[in-house]
Structure formats: C-alpha cells, structure tokens
Amino acid sequence: MDTLVAAMQVAARHSSGLGREVVHVKLSEEQDVQRSLNLGMPGHYAKFLTYLEVTSAIGAEERIPPVEKVTRWPPQKFECMDATEQGSVAVNDLRLSQK
After folding, report:
1. 24 DSSP β-pair partners
2. Is residue 67 part of a domain?
3. Reported pTM
4. Which domain of life is it from (predicted)?
5. CATH number at residue 14
C-alpha cells in the first residue's frame, strides 16, 4: 500500500506542476468548518467534511478497505491526477499564491 501523501507534499507537487507557488495552510477544525460555510456549503456538510479530514489525519484511511476492492478500479496515483487537473486546483486547505 502506498504511503498517504501529506498536505505539504501535495502543495509542493502542485507548485511544481503549475509553475507557481502553492502553500498549505493548516486550519483548526473550527476554521475548516467556517471556510466551508463561507464557500456556501450547508452546515451539516461542512461539519461532515471536517470530520472526514480529522479522522483521516489520525489514520482512519488506513483502516478502510483498499480502493480497488471497493470500486473495482485501481487507485489513481496523485501525480496522474495532478497532471490531468492543472488549472483547476481545489484541494481542501491549499491556496494558490500569485507571483
């Protein structure tokens, strides 16, 4: 099983792929919920999304069945996903900085 990719690594890969700096901003649970609410997300979804992020951060993803077993499709490498979605970066707590 591949190691989970840390947010700082995601930011570095996006920076490399996009040719501009992408900065990871760590948010508290309350800030994360508020960010989602500010983007127009309903409260119950904002809280659930934050719950998923928090439980993933403490290892919940390592206890669930492998992607291929659930979806019947092999997992997609982050590098492949990043290359196909250049210009449409919307990853949780990443923010593009303009240079």
Report:
1. 94
2. yes
3. 0.55
4. Eukaryota
5. 3.90.25
Cβ within 8 Å of residue 51, ≥6 positions away = none
Residue type, 16: S
Boundaries of domain holding 45: 7-96
Cβ atoms within 10 Å of 11's Cβ, excluding its own: 21
Predicted local confidence at residue 58, as pLDDT: 86
Q: Is residue 28 one of the residues assigned to a domain?
A: yes
Strand ranges, E, within the chain: 22-24, 94-96
> Are 23 and 62 spatial neighbours (Cβ–Cβ below 8 Å)?
no
pLDDT digits (tens, 9 = 90+) for 2-15: 445 678 888 888 88
Q: Looking at the 3D structure of the chain, how many domains does it have?
A: 1
Residue 1 domain flag: no
The per-type count for the chain, helices as H runs and strands as E runs, is 5, 2
Q: Using one digit for the tens of pLDDT, what is the confidence trace for 14-25?
A: 888 888 999 888
CA distance 59 to 43: 25
